[in-house]
Amino acid sequence: MQLHGKDAFEETQIICDTTVQEKDITFLTDSKLYYAIIEQCWKIAGTNNIKLHQSFKFLSKSMRLKLRFAHHPKKKKEARHALKKIKKLWF
């Protein structure tokens, strides 16, 4: 009403554009959550000056790369193994 003023009352039809653009949302999977927990632990250890005996940064990054191709038919077994290994790092 305020947008068109008095012209809005004289019209008999209203045209509404209801198209919606999809948002670029990535859903958290188990592996993303595990990796986020690992990163938070590294951050906490760094802020509190706690020296870690092993940080497993190289291992966790390589396992994350293996999980990236989890939907490939020949890589599913390797991805399952990588997910188990990431889960065992901190839990």
Average pLDDT rating: 81
Q: Indicate the proportion of strand residues.
A: under 5%
SSE order, one letter for each helix or strand: HHHH
What radius of gyration results from the CA coordinates?
Answer: 25 Å
Characterize the main sheet: none
Number of strands: 0
| Number of domains as seen in the coordinates | 1
N- and C-termini, Cα separation: 59 Å
Helical stretch count?
4
Report the uncertain regions: none
General form: elongated
Share of helix among residues?
Answer: 40-55%
Structural class: mainly alpha
Fold and architecture overview:
This protein is mainly α and 91 residues long. The chain has one domain. It has four helices and no strands. α2 packs parallel to α4 and α3 runs antiparallel to α4. The protein is elongated and about 75 Å long. The mean pLDDT is 81.
Topology overview:
Layout: H1 7-10, H2 30-47, H3 57-68, H4 76-90
Helix pairs in contact: 2-4, 3-4
Q: What are its keywords?
A:
mainly alpha; single chain; 91 residues
Short description:
The chain is mainly alpha-helical and 91 residues long.
